[in-house]
Write a structure and sequence with these properties.
Elements (H helix, E strand, L loop, with lengths): L2 H5 L13 E3 L44 E3 L76 E4 L4 E3 L19 H30 L1 E2 L17 E9 L11 E10 L4 E7 L4 E4 L3 E4 L2 H19 L5 E6 H11 L2 E5 L1 H19 L12 E5 L1 H8 L7 H22 L4 H9 L3 E3 L3 H14 L3 E7 L5 E6 L2 E6 L1 H11 L11
Parallel strand pairs: 5-14, 6-11, 8-15
Antiparallel strand pairs: 1-2, 3-4, 6-7, 7-8, 9-10, 11-14, 12-13, 16-17
Amino acid sequence: MSDLENRNGGSDLPRPRRKTEVPVPPSVTGYRNNPIPVQRPSNEPPTAAFPRVREQHQDYSSDTEEYTIPNSAYTDYEEPPIYHEDDYNEFYDDTPPTNYQQRPSQQYQQRPSQQYQQRPPQQSQQRPRQSQQQRPRHPQQHSQRPQQRQSDDYIQQQPRRQKREAPPPRRRRRMGCLGRLIRSIIVLAVIIFAIYSAISLALINKLEKVPRGERLVTSGALHSNHTRSVLLIGTDSRDLNSERGRSDSMILLTINSRTGEVYLTSFMRDAWVEIPNYGGNKLNAAYSFGGAELLMDTIEQNYSVRIDDYLCVTFTGFANIIDALGGVKIEVTPEEAEEINNILKNEVNELMGDDPVSDLLEKGGELILNGKQALSYARIRYVGNADFERTSRQREVITQIMQNAKTKAVSAIPEMVSSAMPHFSTNMSTTELYLFSLRVPQMMIYDFRQQQIPADGTWTPVTIDGQSALQVDFAGNIAILNETVYASVKPSKEE
């Protein structure tokens, strides 16, 4: 029989270790590694030396009945029972026991060890408390707030910082007379703008809008970011939808927002030009061949200017605008008065469907002409320097229309425009017309300037194919347009 069998009573299996029990002091509160006070047997004096605990594998016996737990060296830790130290408060010892050993896996979170001191029985009813400075904080507490009070039961933190009270609301100052006046002006301006916008949109919807066709792109055309050019076309047709007619007047309205000027540039109808896809002919023939789009392309190609849009008006619409304004003031010579009566009898009254002898003038002088009379005045051709003075009269009538519109009441403008809208056509969209109408009040304060193209000294009278025409120096006229209409610097008063 081997030594192992002798030790294990004849069995080859290893003999299990015997669990021993050791006395546990009543003051143990469930924390391992604390100093464990052990009560000595009652037959020994209280002042005797503290006996050492015997070896772990030896049986332990005592002549006193003690509460015991299994040796933790061989068993897993369980929650120890609660002991009342009031029953065992006679002896305390500061020396920790040496017979308890634990594996690392059996250790757990522990409170810091406390120092026990020997005290008289009458003062041992309660465990002495440690002050805040002696007791370290638990390692899991990470609060950074300052502590006001700390005890065994709770930690009282300082109260949160109270928010600053908001300052009392300021008293609104009472608006003075000037403030009320400014507010009234602003409200009135907003109301006027709203009314103007509503009227403009209503009138724009009555206007005949022609879809844009394909336009020729003229390289190097004169243009500026602060200018807008609209070609005004006057035609002798009764109805814009049924017949095209002839272009009796061609005036380029150019608004220069930088210089604050409005230029009225008349193009001579007898100028010999190259019409795209039609060859050489007079300028007014372009409208008969291809309408307003072809006329715009012809002017752009020959005079190298850019035209943004066009606005075409019949004779009836032209006369209605003047009647809505209450007429225009014109200085009429006796020769012009006689020619006005001839045009009224033979053309205008018949075009309007009126009596041929109605609205005739008795004499010349500074007169207020109505719509038909002003239209006849603008069509005078055989008095003075023929077509040159004719275009000058047309620009004079348009200038007087603009001047009267400045002084006219706002309530009269819708009636004026409404009476003329059925006789207008344009290629501008509703949005473009509305934006253009917003610039009309600003145009009223601009300076109006007039000129004719070709300018004096830049043309020569010729006869081509049996037609009297003007041979134009296009390079010279392009330079004049660049210096006047598209100038970026406003000319001085001396000029």
